[in-house]
Amino acid sequence: MTERLLSVENLTVSFATRDGDNQAVRGIHFHVDKGETLGIVGESGSGKSVTARSIMSLISPPGQITAGSIRFRGQDCLAWTEKEWRKLRGNRISMIFQDPMTSLNPLKRIGQQLTEVLRRHRGLDRQQANQEAERLLQEVGISDAKTRLRQYPHEFSGGMRQRVMIAMALSCQPDLLIADEPTTALDATIQAQILDLFKSLKQRSDTAIVLITHDLGVVAQVCTRVIVMYGGLIMEEGRVEDIFYRPQHPYTQGLLRSLPQRGSGSRERLVPIEGTPPNLLHPPAGCPFAERCPHVFASCTQMPPMTETEPGHYSMCWLSHEAAIAGDHDHKLAAEGVEHHE
């Protein structure tokens, strides 16, 4: 039987601004099972990173979790004290942040920052921690690791700093690893190496991974399930093969059409998604994708429910409902200038 590691229910997060509350995440539900890799994809501003930081209890003013629950191994994370969180962060739950320069202390050597984690959470002595830190840097593709441990963050390139952060996150073999755009600053060779590391970690220690990215190619390589976010909501959820081969939501279909297809040639014309994401200071009452959707009709002014279109595959779109047929018919009549009467 699969063990439920993380459960997120009705998570709602907002940020206070001069103009009102920015509703970054609007009541989302999802789960992560032990040993699986869940991909969270979507455009910038869709709520991906805010969701990740909420799981880690790293939302600070003016941000606030206003509703919902987050449970890790059945325990209510939102009830934990900061002291309890310090024991868990970097140990049972680790996160790789999008910008490594905000996570590494510029005044401390890389070796000191790595060994602090190893000594605190794994109880290693100084010599053991130094040896393990050196091994971790080698594992993430940093050569001459012994010398590098004595250097400061500013002496590393952006890609190398990201690899240091990955080494720190992997150091305690966590139960749950949250990776926010972990390969953005890396070249293709190192990216492949890091993705192989994630696969190895999952096989070796049954670590569950939440991978947040805009790169669907990365998702296809390592994920088992995928969540597609837009406008602070989950638009679609399913196994990786469901999302790539049988996408149900028009937004997911648009994301896939905007990617170059393998073997299609350099003259292939990509299809962008026209328009811009919704203003989350005043989010629409209905489907947040309606203004950009090629299939929009009357029902889209109301929020569609999440519907299971096939086992384990969910879509939040009226096109998944029989009610959409009548709405689509009305939409076509209106487009032709024909008045419709009941």
Description:
The protein has eleven helices and twelve strands. With 342 residues, it is an alpha/beta fold. The strands form two sheets. Strands 6-7-8-3-9-10-12-11 form an eight-stranded mixed beta sheet, sandwiched between helices. Strand 7, helix 7 (188-205) and strand 8 (208-213) form a beta-alpha-beta unit. The protein is globular, with a radius of gyration of 22 Å. It is a peripheral membrane protein. Belongs to the ABC transporter superfamily. Its main location: membrane.
Features:
disordered C terminus, alpha/beta, single chain, Oligopep_ABC_C, transport, 342 residues, 4-stranded antiparallel beta sheet, 32% helix, 12 strands, 8-stranded mixed beta sheet, cell membrane, 11 helices
Secondary structure topology:
Elements: E1 4-17, E2 20-33, E3 37-41, H1 48-55, E4 63-72, E5 75-76, H2 82-88, E6 93-96, H3 110-122, H4 126-139, H5 145-148, H6 158-170, E7 176-180, H7 188-205, E8 208-213, H8 216-222, E9 225-230, E10 233-239, H9 240-245, H10 250-257, E11 307-310, E12 313-315, H11 323-335
Parallel strand pairs: 3-8, 3-9, 6-7, 7-8
Antiparallel strand pairs: 1-2, 1-4, 4-5, 9-10, 10-12, 11-12
Helix pairs in contact: 3-4, 4-6
